[in-house]
């Protein structure tokens, strides 16, 4: 059982950062309870009474001791106010002093735990949830100490080391050398070094950098090249004091911190590889790898990881306590699924052939000038002529696309292929890691980040290389598919169809709160996912679609089961989406009212125009004068169509305004009505403009024979504006309403086909 006063950090990806607060409150309640019991028994101690008073004072005063939460702008003021509060509460000994945590059997243990918890609670309350949450994720084993939290949030050290006066004066004598390197003047640099060759190894900057390191940061490749010739391998291992967080980093690591690609490539060839080894005992290798990944230099990162025994770098912490596998889980741009490509760019992306050789061994060098596109031709004698033609056409198409597609798209596809290869290398290393190393990785958080960012490739490769991980649950009892539902990542959840019959078992899993998959689908989607859908009514539709899709997957009895709060899935959905449904109703009414005004105005205009035809009518017969003209026939027909379309649109919008706006109406009924209303409104605008253009042409064709051209152009302007502003919404509604399924079920069909070939029935009854 966890002891009172200690903070237990879990790998729960979605838990809030209130563990410190809960610890403080629970401990205070326990003290208060114990004191009450002692008083009732006549044996209350003075120590217990003091602790109870401290807990009561903290609970009543911590919420208002700092006027503003901690930000970058008010950091100094926040620090001063919080420090005064902690001193006033007699908590300085556990935060600022030398007092360490006593043993549990020590008489002061109870007092220390109480003070530590109160201090932690005060710091958390004044900082905000996000700050504490990030600290807990970065230092999960140290955040139970108020002194540690204060050190990292308030007592921040300077990023640049301070130097003594005599050290400063000593460094200033190299000012001319420093300026020559900064300017890239090798002749002047050479003159400065000629007097004392050992100056190439001396620190010449206040940051503790030598000449090579200054040249590296300045990106002066020529000087770097010349300086390397003057230095030995041991000199290249000289580290810098570039800030407290980067003490001991190599020149190549310093370069990688600033993403200087040319300098990185040069130093990778000059730096002895053993300096970056996982066995070197420092963080240079891991830091270099992580910087390469952060800057998108996946080719350089692959060169490093492909070295024998260097894959462990992907799981080692760098100077910032990050590791490569964590960075990839958060780097959306490294994969296609995380890149927000438009329709046109996505089509171009799909047309570009993948020239990257995805294998575990280093790729063979390729001659760019005489690059031959592989045609995958068979070497057998029975090769058909048709296959030869297809392969030849494919190769020709690849050659053409290689020159037509923008370089940015080709580079993106190459980077994505390299990042995927990098991911495969890291996942192949996971089985070799020790259990302690896996625990330190906090793997559940890594998976959560990948799901949150919608990185399908990450999760797919994870399941492929480690199939047993689909059963892995976190401290809330939730699998990766449960989080795919909570975070509304349909592409990731679609991977469940690749599991075959295992899918039926996974969908019956419940978390520690009694929630099944349908309960999770009933929860409100994260704001980041809702914002991707335009309009709150369509957001409500998307939420209903998720709920209905999951409802069709789970066993029927799960639809009526309650969680620990006594809510069935449908009741929970109604509760979670009550506000969204109100906003959806308001959005639908406002949109409908605006469109209805336009439709009514068009109907009024075209109805009146029918009785005031261009050119008028004959006084004798009442027949329109231009009745025999083709343009007049077009005018009459389009004017009538515009009236019919606009009137229909008005009636449809009227039907929306008088709807019940029930929960189920947002799924199909309201969207379909809106589709019909917007479509008829669009056609009424088009036909009205055609009728108007025909009328002008009839009246002016004899006077201005060229009038048809400007009329056509000008009439197209309002139509173009309607298409530009309204068609994206209309197109989105049509796709969302008539899409067969949210999920990609093609994998399920493939699995069922394989089972049928084996004579197995995949449609067996669900197990209770």
UniProtKB/TrEMBL annotation:
Residues 1-21, 360-384 are annotated as: Disordered. Keywords: Membrane, Transmembrane, Transmembrane helix. The keyword Transit peptide does not apply. SUPFAM superfamilies: Ankyrin repeat. The chain crosses the membrane at residues 591-611, 631-654, 674-699, 711-735. Residues 586-698 form the PGG domain. Pfam families: PGG. The keyword DNA repair does not apply. GO terms for cellular component: membrane. PANTHER family: CASKIN, PGG DOMAIN-CONTAINING PROTEIN. This is PGG domain-containing protein. It comes from Hevea brasiliensis.
